[in-house]
TrEMBL record:
It comes from Streptomyces sp. 900116325. SMART domains: PP2C_SIG. Residues 382-407 are annotated as: Disordered. Keywords: Hydrolase, Membrane, Transmembrane, Transmembrane helix. This is PP2C family protein-serine/threonine phosphatase.
Amino acid sequence: MTTQTHMMTSTGRAATAAGLAFSFSAVRLRPLIAVVVASAVLLGVTLGGVIVPADVHLVVLLVAVPALTAAADNTCTTVSMTALACLGVVAVDVDDGLPSSPILPIDVLGLLVVCVLVLVFRRMRDVDHRTLRAVRSVSETAQRALLPPLPCRVAGLEIATAYRSAAAHAHIGGDVYAAERVDRTVRMLIGDVRGHGLAAVDDAAAVIGAFREAAHRDVRLEHVALALDAGVRRRVDQAGQTDSNAAERFITALVLEIPDDCHVVHVVSCGHPDLMRSHGTGVDLLEVPEPAPPLGLGGDQAAYQVNTFAFEPEDTLLLHTDGLLETRDAAGVFYPALDRFALLAEDEPQFLIERLMSDLTVHAGGEVQDDVAIVAVRRRAAPPTEGADEDGHHGSPVATEFGSWPA
């Protein structure tokens, strides 16, 4: 598997680099190609108009010259090419014996009208592009506030995340993830709000806020899950005053705890897809036999059972939302997430999730219809020693690992 994985890694990187280079070149060459084609049309129609008999009026084709410059980047290009086209019109009409005919000003007027329309529509396009950039900037800021980047390394763990919203041009939706350092453990959450896209952001923000508070307040992991359920139910009750469908809102979630000094992971499942684990040369699902109801549906304390699984050095956990499993291709075949994870499990976490997200997009034909969140967590072979941070310096685990990380 190692040889195959390394071959896939190098091939994938080469393909990605080639694709980016091609896209970048295509964007930069597009205005030049437009000018070259417009110039060729101008030259060909002008020469053809002079050569062919006068009763064949080719000069009307010169309206294509300003139209073709719509792909150019600036106004000067369109105006310059239109001026040259007007000279071509004059040359052809004079050659055809029409200098005093109303046909000449009509032909020139047609070019000027097309030129003005191109400039107007380019201005409208530029305004739309600026608006879209502003919306994307706001969306990215909101995502960083709601889902701040998780640290790449925490104690003996390497963490990588990827997120894609189903809402067009948005960077945020109804899938959530979070992590908190609590004493000598790392507590994590991954959840999926009912619905997707921007409509689910409100519930997503609520459950993340509840997790950040409960993770530090409650000693037992099942109590964290119980607190999350209570928080979501309060949110649903409040929303019910203005939303008649609020009772149908819920959140599936996994709540995890990974201790520093024990090679295990504790999991409470609230109706969420099971996480995957690479272990040795294989991968498997860490199936929770009796998951609790999703958050917001009112499970009692007994429903939140802690399940413990081995998590050895060099193992990788893959946490994900159901968008990874339920994405279909054109033939209606679900994405084979476990098989793909098996092929990529030996990669570094960041590259692993990048390849998975890219492969998922290809499987979906370029457009994923649901929010997708992926978190990869690898336990390193040589975790830091007792009371030491990443560089071997002694100090507070929270201060050294999370000094610049939002609480």
